[in-house]
Amino acid sequence: MEPEIRESRIYLLVRLLLGGLFLWASWEKILHPEDFAVAVRNYALLPEVLINPIALLLPWMEAFCGILLIVGRFVKGSAFIVDILMVIFILAFVINLYRGVDISCGCFSVAEKAPPGNYFYYLTRDLIILAAGIWVLWYEIRKSALAQHQMLS
Question: What is the pTM of this model?
Answer without folding.
Answer: 0.88
